[in-house]
């Protein structure tokens, strides 16, 4: 399931099958009501989606998902394609921490099957992610108010460029994201004990507390994408242009961005995290600047570029 960004009218609902996985990718959920609608709906949801007609009396009392040891489902973690983009899910539980935009889906998909084969319950503490293992557990924190929940990842999505995670209605309610429709959150993978997943001692991701950054060339390129780096050294809005399993592919994209003069005022990071090399530019001073840069990259290179937050 997935949500699209607020205030964009109209969308064609698509139903796609995950490549070789047999799991379904459901149409856009929780889209904002068009601005021409006389009585806009709260929460920015789409068409017939939104809160249920008979919600529980006290949604805040719904308990968080309880992490437990679960083996990722092979059939639900195969590479798949959605909306023209190919995704390669993680097949084991690994360290993961990312900041981005969360959105929610409600009654429109209540009772339908998720990509893991489970039935979606809008009042259960669940979520959808494009690459985290199905099933897995994450802590989602709203930095604006400090609220935090634990959800079970059991579905795929969201597939809109600027979204990191889709939450159930209950999870979004407890984080106070329902009224706004979406918001910035931090997502961190948890182990069966409810603790952040840590890498084995001596492994590449175990070096995350000791990032070694090397400035190169004219200062635009920061080699923050080596296997010893798992968290970026700086924060803000970024433009992610590509994600690769092979470092050399990311390096070639960095060269292309430099040659096209698309990163004259910001750094380019070839950043390694959770088994993936991510090429991104930033940080930008505002979301508007990042979105403008993403649009310029799309037009110049005819490639996808998304705004992410860290």
Structure description:
- The protein has 310 residues and is mainly beta.
- The chain has helices spanning 169-174, 247-259, 287-301, and strands spanning 2-3, 16-17, 24-25, 28-29, 80-82, 85-87, 97-105, 126-128, 136-141, 148-155, 163-168, 182-190, 215-216, 221-222, 237-244, 267-273, 276-284, 306-309.
- The chain has a six-stranded mixed barrel. Strands 13-14-16-17-15-18 form a six-stranded mixed sheet.
- A hairpin with a 6-residue loop joins strand 9 and strand 10 (148-155).
Tell me, what's the shape?
globular
Structural class: mainly beta
In terms of quaternary structure, what is this? single chain
- List the uncertain runs: 1-44, 202-234
Give the DSSP E fraction (strand runs of 2 or more residues). 25-35%
DSSP, total strands = 18
Mean pLDDT: 74
Radius of gyration: 19 Å
H/E element order: EEEEEEEEEEEHEEEEHEEHE
What gap, in angstroms, lies between the N and C termini? 23 Å
Q: Helical region count? A: 3
Spatial strand order of the main sheet: 7-11-8-10-9-12
